[in-house]
Amino acid sequence: MAISIGIARKDREAVARHLSRLLADTYSLYLKTHSFHWNVTGPQFNSLHTMFETQYNELWLAADEVAERIRTLDVFAPGSYSQFAKLSAIKEEAGVPEWKAMVGQLVEGHEIAAATARDTLKAANAAGDDGTADMVTGRLKEHEKTAWMLRSLLK
Fold first, then answer.
1. Residue 2 lies in a domain
2. For 112-137, what is the mean pLDDT?
3. Is residue 120 part of a domain?
4. How many domains is the chain partitioned into structurally?
5. Cα atoms in the Cβ-side hemisphere of radius 13 Å centred on 37
6. Is the pTM value of this prediction over 0.85?
7. What's the CATH code of the domain at 36?
8. C-beta of residue 55 within 8 angstroms of C-beta of residue 61
9. Any domain includes 104
């Protein structure tokens, strides 16, 4: 059955391309945050270990929400590491930095994801896609808030 949600196919595909980048940023940030949760050490261990767990759980749920929105638009969602690596602007961390560098990388990652969300919001608004705009506004606010909270640890 053909999709008929009031958004032209070319517009749905354009929005889905932006959402795919947001999904890649979200998943990359999830992986990095989970790794840092496992590997953090230092005087802030307990608080960072707990904070990172809260953050990676939120990102895991967000990735599903973004992927399902792509599918709602009748486009297939990317789902491999190689696809995410091509789509995401978040740099992979192959080592185990000290805790301050971990926090700094996560601030940077959330700021990148916020910028991607902002671009996605523009595309959704241009397409008249209120459903995506609503979801992405929430993601944007979450990334900005998390970046602020993490940044506060470094002052």
1. no
2. 98
3. yes
4. 1
5. 14
6. yes
7. 1.20.1260.10
8. no
9. yes
